[in-house]
Amino acid sequence: MAQNVTSRWDATHAAPWGPVARDTGSVSLSLVVAASHHHGRVPQAAVQALVELVRQRPPLILTGAGISTDSGIPDYRGPDGRRRVTPMQHGEFVGASQARQRYWARSYVGWHRFAAAEPNVGHRVVAGLQAAGAAGPIITQNVDGLHQRAGARSVVELHGTLAEVVCLTCGARLDRDLVQALMADANPGFVDRVTGLAEDGSRVSSQIRPDGDIVLADSAVTEFRAPSCLVCRADTLKPDVVFFGGSVPKDRVERCYDLTDAAAALLVLGSSLAVMSGYRFVRRAAARGIPVVILTHGPTRGDGEATLRVDAPLGPTLAAVADRLGVPA
Ligand SMILES: [Zn+2]
Q1: CA of 236 to the centre of ligand 1 (A)
Q2: Active site residue 13
Q3: Which domains are delineated in the chain?
């Protein structure tokens, strides 16, 4: 059932970034939030509201897995908000060599597909909005680097990046491509042997997870030689990402709070806000009276805080916004 929502972006909270001149005074917008029977279509009223938002209050952008699904990197959760796969847990990873062996075996096989993923229209529109002065910095919960590859700048990777590996014993940092090469040397022929061994009988290449992990049979994992640190030789190498149950470094959280406090508005793209690490910035913005706009397919935890809530397909909606603004997508 559709629901009428009135949104209001006033100019009292001017954006600290961007060269675009903004209207003075305030603009009120009435629009219809897309309801379930609109799924698959782009709601034009919502597009217009998003256009007004980025014109008048270039927002801080907060992105989640939903912006990368069109690049072939699936979400942990479906549109119903339910978890589809069990992600690696931080405690499990740091607590047992076997867990690290399992992670690296799966990640090794999944890396080719993960590394081959290309930015999609959503990433390109966000970068284009930034270039046009219609969007501020980006806080992303994704670890795939696709915003940067689309040309975005000022990207804070809240949950880290898969492109780097850190040693939990000595603190050494290694490039993921180097670790991939070390694993290839230590495990000749591994990918060929495990292809087709996925537990559910599906092809390995279709089972990649948002953190680069894949589904792999236990029998394949036990023969895998996990990488060890080039500096201290410990088998405690970890991708520089925050696993479920782990914490985001404090200075990174503070930086994101600062960005939120300075924002003219907060625009959430493709996140169900299920984890507190991203949701807390929505709460912060709402508490400070900063408009929160959520464009995500399916329900989100932040719906109660949202000034404007758009439940619509992300790529086509952003493409329509870009089209109205003359921003290349
Ligand atoms: Zn080390």
Answers
A1: 7
A2: no
A3: 3-71+119-159+247-325 (3.40.50.1220), 90-116+162-241 (no CATH)
